[in-house]
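Many introductory courses stop at the sequence. We go one step further.
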Amino acid sequence: MSAPAAVRDIARRRATIAGRTLRTDRWWLQPLITVVGLVAWVLYAVIRTATQKYYWVPQYHYLTPFASPCISASCIPEASHLGQWLPAFPPLVPFAIITLPFLLGFRLTCYYYRKAYYRSFWLSPPACAVSEPHKKYSGETRFPLIFQNVHRYFFYAAGIIALLNTYDSIVAFHGKTGGFGFGLGNVILLANVVLLWAYTASCHSCRSLVGGRLKHFSKHPVRYWMWRQVSKLNEKHMALAWTTLGTLALTDAYIGLVSAGVFTDLRFIN
């Protein structure tokens, strides 16, 4: 019997499974957690960015990443580190409307987030050894998923925005009476920036950019060393993707609560 005929014979004798899977574990829990986590974060971000309030602490120059860069005439002048070269925004429009689409594009086209929302929202597939409800699969070759291929360009934009967040964290070392100051808000801002850089550097596009198209690593020792370091971060890409969502929300919430006067910033210097 030829190999193709043998394969067809095995296929005919394979058991017909009526259900979606024979798995008896809670395979649906991970997709459910992903849905809850992402939806909760998006709701929080939409509400906070649409309120146009409690984004700036004037005493210590704390600016939330959700409002950076604040370049609208609606912003408090001191919070506009890059100037105000856009007119006043109507209600509900985020102050960081210039950068938010690029950050959203970077996250949406991220290789990990693709896996996360493909499995959890589209059930394509929801888990290993679980059939999906879709009968056809076109991959990422047609509209709208073909736009996933521009991830590298969103990576460049994310690097520029990370520089802006770094600048904001440096400006925040401002004491209440002028000069250098340091408080809990600075720790939170710095931790957020460091983790954002780690997440950005752990991106698959960054790894390809650093070490891609090299035929001989031995002839490029510097790039090889950089590629190894980025590869180590790349192994933690999923963890950093979730951690940075948490630090972004924490940073915004802390600055918002201090700005609203719910509590005062814990100061270590000045």
